[in-house]
Design goal:
By secondary structure, the chain is an alpha+beta fold. The chain contains 13 helices and 28 strands.
C-alpha cells in the first residue's frame, strides 16, 4: 500500500518507494518486476491512455495508432539538412505500453557484437554474456528453449509462419543472391535471411502492457496513473525526491522514498531532465531553466536507423493492395474480430535479414525488411497498385543528432535533429545497401512477381542518381535512441548501473541509455535494458 506523510499545511502528500515515469515498453517491465517484491510500493505514470483497444490489439492496424494524436506524440524532426531539408515524421507511442503497443512487432535482439562493443566502453555489465540471461528471461520462444533462447519468460515470442507466397519468393531470391538462410536471427549468429520473430500471439499484438503490466495491475503495492503528465522532477540539492505531475487537470507533488526511474524514451526522457534542470548548462540557461546539474551529454548522441525503400510493382495480387477494397477490408476485419485469424492477425513485416555491404565488414551492417505493399507517407496515403518493397537500413550509422528544448514548458515539443547522412560514411554504405537489395530482387525466384521498379526507378543507376533518391525518399525506421548514453566519458549521462552521473536516487531505463544503437529493431533491447535495470535496483 502507498504511504502518506503529513506536510506542514496539513494536506496529504503521496509517497511511494519507486516512481516510474513512463509506462512504455521499459516502464511496464519495471512496474512488474519492482512490484513483485511485496515490500516495495510502486507508482507508474503515463501521459497517455490505456491501450486495451482493438486498433492496438489487431496486428495489421498499426497505422491507426501511429497517426492518432490521442495515442501518439506524432513528433517531427527539424528540417534535415542532408535529406533535402525534409522534416522527418517521428511517431512515439502515447499510451500504456508505449511503442510496444504501436510498433511493427518485429523482435530483434541485436548482434552479440553490439554488446561486446558496449562492454569495450568500460561497461562490463553489458557484455553479451551479461545480457543474454536477461534476453532469455523475457521470452517464451515458439521454437523452444536452448542455449540462446528462453522458454519460460513473460512474453510470447513467435517465429512468423506467414505463408504469403511473396515471402517464400523473397527468401529464395536472397539465397540465390548468395546469402544464407538463418532459422534464428536471435540465436548464435545473426547473419542471414529468414522469417523474423514477432511479438504476436494467437492473432493479437503481444505488447509489454498486455504481458508485463496488465496481469499485475491489481497488486496492492502498485498504482498505475494514466493521463498523468509528469511536468518536472523535484530535487533537493543533487537528490531526486519527487515529481510534479498533472493528474485530471490538477498538479500534484508525489515523492519517492527510494528512487525515481525515467522510462519515457529517447525523446521524452532527455526533455524531462532538461526542463527539470539537468542537462547542458548553457542551453538550459538560454531557455530560462535553473541548472541543478550541468551534464552536457543530455539530449546528445541521438541515433536512428534510416530506411530506404526499393519498390517494385507486383504482377500478381498477393499484396496488401487487395485489402484496400472496402468489401475485402470489411471481410478480413470481421474474420479477425470473430476468431483472431486471417490477414489482420499478422503485421506482414516478418521476412528480412542481415548481411554485409562488403566482405571487409566484421559482422552484418545492413538490415532488410520485406513488405508486400507500397508504403507512402508512413501509410497515410493508400497505394494505387499492387507492389512490394524491400526496406534497407544501415545498422551502425556514424551520424549523430540531438534533442534540445524549444522552451522551458514541458508541454512544448522539443527540437529533434537527427542529422541523418551528416557523416559521408553513412551515405556511401546506404548506396551499397541499394545495390545489395536490387541484386536480391533481380533473382529468378522473384521474376514471376516482379514488375517494373518504381523506386529508385529503372533510370536511376549512377551513384549520384541513387544518392538523390536516398536524400529525397528515405525515412526513419522509428528507432530513436542513445540520447542519455551510458559510459564513463564526458558525454556520458548514466553509469553502467543506469544511475545519472552526479545525482542521487535517479536512474534511466529505456532506449536512451544505449551508448550506440543496436543492429536491428529496438523493442527487444529495450525490454532487456528494463529487465537489467530491475535487477540492478532490486539488488542494490
Amino acid at each position: 500500500m502507498l504511504s502518506k506523510a503529513i506536510t506542514h499545511n496539513k494536506s496529504i502528500t503521496l509517497k511511494f518507494d519507486y516512481l516510474i515515469i513512463g509506462a512504455g515498453t521499459a516502464g511496464c517491465v519495471l512496474a512488474n518486476r519492482l512490484s513483485a517484491k511485496s515490500q516495495n510500493n510502486v507508482a507508474i505514470f503515463e501521459a497517455g491512455k490505456n491501450s486495451d483497444i482493438w486498433k492496438v490489439n489487431m496486428p495489421l492496424a498499426i497505422l491507426y495508432t501511429m497517426h492518432d494524436p490521442k495515442y501518439n506524440y506524432k513528433y517531427y524532426s527539424e528540417p534535415e539538412p542532408h535529406l533535402n531539408n525534409r522534416r522527418i515524421f517521428c511517431p512515439r507511442g502515447k499510451m500504456i505500453g508505449g511503442c510496444s503497443a504501436h510498433n511493427g512487432m518485429v523482435y530483434v535482439r541485436g548482434n552479440k557484437n553490439d554488446y561486446e562493443r558496449w562492454s569495450s566502453f568500460g561497461l562490463k555489465e553489458w557484455s553479451y554474456e551479461k545480457v543474454l540471461p536477461f534476453f532469455k528471461k523475457i521470452e517464451t520462444w515458439s521454437e523452444g528453449e536452448n542455449k540462446y533462447r528462453g522458454g519460460n519468460g513473460i512474453l510470447p515470442i513467435n517465429q512468423s509462419k506467414n505463408k504469403n507466397p511473396l515471402f517464400k519468393a523473397f527468401l529464395d531470391s536472397a539465397k540465390e543472391a548468395g546469402h544464407r538462410i538463418n532459422k534464428d536471427m536471435n540465436g548464435e549468429d545473426q547473419e542471414g535471411f529468414g522469417m523474423y520473430d514477432v511479438t504476436i500471439h494467437k492473432g493479437e499484438r503481444a505488447s509489454a502492457s498486455k504481458y508485463y503490466l496488465n496481469p499485475v495491475r491489481k497488486r496492492e503495492n502498485l498504482k498505475v496513473f494514466t493521463e498523468s503528465f509528469v511536468e518536472k522532477i523535484i530535487f533537493e540539492g543533487k537528490k531526486a525526491v519527487g515529481i510534479e505531475v498533472k493528474i485530471k487537470g490538477k498538479v500534484e507533488k508525489i515523492y519517492a522514498n527510494k528512487e525515481i526511474i525515467l522510462s519515457g524514451g529517447s525523446i521524452n526522457s532527455p526533455q524531462l531532465l532538461m526542463v527539470s534542470g539537468i542537462g547542458p548548462g548553457e542551453h538550459l540557461k538560454e531557455k530560462g531553466v535553473d541548472v541543478i546539474q550541468d551534464i552536457k551529454g543530455v539530449g546528445k548522441n541521438l541515433q536512428d536507423h534510416l530506411e530506404t525503400y526499393i519498390q517494385q510493382e507486383c504482377k500478381t495480387s498477393d499484396t496488401l493492395y487487395s485489402y484496400i477494397n472496402k468489401l475485402n477490408m470489411l471481410r478480413v476485419g470481421l474474420q479477425w474480430f470473430l476468431n483472431k485469424s486471417g490477414p489482420c492477425s499478422t503485421s506482414f513485416l516478418e521476412a528480412g535479414g542481415f548481411c554485409k555491404s562488403s566482405s571487409d565488414k566484421d559482422y552484418p551492417n545492413i538490415q532488410f525488411h520485406f513488405f508486400p505493399a507500397f508504403v507512402i507517407d508512413h501509410g497515410a496515403v493508400d497505394p494505387d497498385r499492387h507492389g512490394y518493397q524491400l526496406h534497407a537500413s544501415l545498422n551502425q550509422p556514424k551520424s549523430r543528432g540531438h534533442i534540445k528544448l524549444n522552451t522551458s514548458n514541458p508541454y512544448d515539443y522539443p527540437k529533434i535533429q537527427f542529422n541523418y547522412l551528416e557523416d559521408e560514411y553513412d551515405l556511401k554504405e546506404t548506396i551499397k545497401c541499394i545495390h545489395v537489395a536490387r541484386k536480391i530482387l533481380a533473382q529468378n525466384s522473384m521474376k514471376p512477381f516482379a514488375g517494373k521498379e518504381i523506386g529508385p526507378g529503372e533510370n536511376a543507376n549512377t551513384e549520384k542518381e541513387i544518392e538523390n533518391y536516398i536524400r529525397s525518399k528515405s525515412e526513419t525506421a522509428y528507432h530513436p535512441s542513445c540520447t542519455l548514453k551510458m559510459g564513463t566519458d564526458d558525454m556520458a549521462v548514466v553509469d553502467e548501473n543506469l544511475k545519472i552521473h552526479g545525482l542521487k536516487n535517479i536512474r534511466v531505463a529505456d532506449a536512451s541509455v544505449m551508448p550506440e544503437i543496436t543492429s536491428g529493431n529496438l523493442n527487444a533491447p529495450t525490454l532487456m535494458i528494463a529487465e537489467r535495470a530491475s535487477d540492478f535496483i532490486l539488488n542494490s
